[in-house]
Design brief:
- The chain is mainly beta.
- The chain has one domain (4-162).
- The protein has two helices and nine strands; from the N terminus they run βββββαβαβββ.
- It has helices spanning 76-85, 106-113; strands at 15-21, 31-34, 37-40, 50-57, 63-69, 90-97, 128-134, 143-147, 164-170.
- The strands form two sheets. A five-stranded antiparallel sheet has the order 5-4-6-7-8, with helices on one face. The protein has a four-stranded antiparallel sheet with strand order 3-2-1-9, with no helix packed on it.
- Strand 2 (31-34) and strand 3 form a beta hairpin.
- Helix 1 (76-85) runs parallel beside helix 2.
- The longest helix has 10 residues, at 76-85.
Amino acid sequence: PRYKCGISKACPEKHFAFKMASGAANVVGPKICVEDNVLMSGVKNNVGRGINVALVNGKTGETIDTKFFDMWGGDVAPFIEFLKSIQDGTIVLMGTYDDGATKLNEEARKLIAELGSTSITNLGFRDNWVFCGGKGIKTKSPFEQHIKNNKDTNKYEGWPEVVEMEGCIPQKQD
């Protein structure tokens, strides 16, 4: 049998299936899929260097927005404004591509930590990271993977291997 987004098992009722992958070096962009809808990918041509973000309604599973923020050559201010504008009950999926950390400042890291991330404080130059959290959650998200950029263990010259993650996100209940 094939499950939504190609994950390994079906999600229980009142859960959204998701699968995501970080970018591969600076060659293949990240991919984010929720409920069998590919929200972001190189094929859709809506990914870019930095942090790629997909926002999903926590009740309906509908896509709210997809954006990417260049954290190497760009400015962190629009990213901070975007993070501040996320409404309570929104599912937030993030994946890095190329470099997602150089321009991150304390405020941006704190806002991402408030979405449930624990690795964002340690995210460094060219690390690979995928994360799924939510606005208004009071706990740390179980959905996070992080691989440090390390020249001794990198799979590609100058970059760590792709990090992938799948799971079932509980639907927001009133």
